[in-house]
Amino acid sequence: MLEILAKLSSKLQPLRKSTYLVIVMLIGVIITQLLQKPSLIQTNNSYAMLSFVGIIWLLLFNILLSLFHHIPNIDEGSKGIFSRVKIKVQRSCYHLLALLFIALTLVIVFLTVRMLRV
Predict the structure, then answer these.
(1) Distance CA 108, CA 56 (A)
(2) Backbone dihedral region of 117: left (phi > 0), alpha (psi from -120 to 50 degrees) or beta?
(3) How far apart are CA 48 and CA 54, in angstroms?
């Protein structure tokens, strides 16, 4: 599981800067929706909702890119016992983070479906 997330994270690293730009644009859409007249907010509220969902997904994408980019490899060669224990502890922490990431993804999928009423 960690290897899949690490490969995915390393292949998608070039998209990191573009996600920041898209997040800023979506925040701009939300701000413009909030600053409109009250009569227009009720009719165009779907843009703000879609922007909010997009920001949530982009933040989850950035969490993927930042957490799973540098996962230590399992090398059981000539390293000492403390180095191997350190790597195993680090990898177990990454396993815990991966489970939390998957749970967070499922929660965001549920919230997306509920927010968009699909």
Answers:
(1) 8
(2) left
(3) 10
Does an H or E element contain 8, and which?
helix 2-11
The average pLDDT across 52-65 equals: 91
For residue 53, what are the CA distances in angstroms to 9, 45, 78, 108, 113? 21, 13, 48, 9, 10
- Do residues 53 and 110 lie in contact, with contact meaning Cβ atoms separated by under 8 Å? no
Name the pTM for this structure: 0.77
Question: Per residue in 85-96, pLDDT tens?
Answer: 888 898 899 999
Domain that holds residue 42: 2-116
Would you state the structure tokens that stand for residue 6, as one six-digit string? 């690490």
**Model confidence at 71, in pLDDT bands (50, 70, 90)?**
confident
Q: How many domains, the chain?
A: 1
Six-digit token string for 108: 């965001």
Residue 73, amino acid? N
Q: Which token pair is 25?
A: 């644009």
The dihedrals phi and psi of 72, each to the nearest 5 degrees, come to -65, 140
Residue 114, pLDDT above cutoff 70: yes
